[in-house]
Amino acid sequence: MSQKEVQVKISHQVFQDAGDERYEIETTGVLTIKGDSVYLAYTEKIDDQGETNVVFKFSENQISLSRHNVTKTRMVFRPGLVEHQPYQTVAGMMLLSTNTSQIDFAFDEVQLAGSLDLAYALSANDQVVGQYQVALQFGPKSSILN
To answer: What Pfam families would the database entry show (predicted)?
Structure first.
């Protein structure tokens, strides 16, 4: 197992009936290689939302995303897979579903740098709540991310 501090840049675009939203985050994270999987952990700080601990797990056939703040969310992405996950809210349990339409992941083990382009539809209790596009880059602090 190896670990390395990396620079992280992530851009989220959300397309919803109530209006589109876009935000970008640049932060420092920790990249861990364990067996055949690559993990990227970092903390998001978004105004009015506090801090959220985020962990991406990149493996050969799928990507999973865990987000932990007041609530915990885990989503799995794999083209052709509709993944259902329980999501605990203050109002009760909901069932979140992801329907992945695009995953482009590249990772350079020598440079310890990578990128992800991800597109998916998110549903809550079988109702589509939005279309999401995520662009993620990570790499050494001296990389193009600066």
So the answer is: DUF1934
Q: What is the pLDDT of residue 127?
A: 86
Alpha-carbon dihedral angle through residues 70, 76, 79, 84, given to the nearest 10 degrees? -80
Give CA–CA dist 118/71, Å, rounded. 23
What are residue 52's DSSP bridge partners? Answer: 44
Q: Would you place residue 146 in the very low, low, confident or very high pLDDT band (cuts 50, 70, 90)?
A: very low
From CA 20, how far away is CA 37, in angstroms rounded? 33
Q: How far apart are CA 5 and CA 20, in angstroms?
A: 32
The rounded distance, in Å, linking the Cα atoms of 58 and 7 is 17
DSSP three-state, residue 63: strand
- Beta bridge partner(s), residue 133: 13, 119
Q: pLDDT averaged over the chain?
A: 87
Q: What is the CATH number of domain 2-139?
A: 2.40.128.20
Mean pLDDT of 47-55: 83
What is the structure's pLDDT at 143? 53
Residue 142 above 70 pLDDT? no
> Sheet harboring 2-15: ordered strands across?
72-77, 63-68, 50-58, 37-46, 21-34, 2-15, 127-139, 113-124, 92-108, 82-89
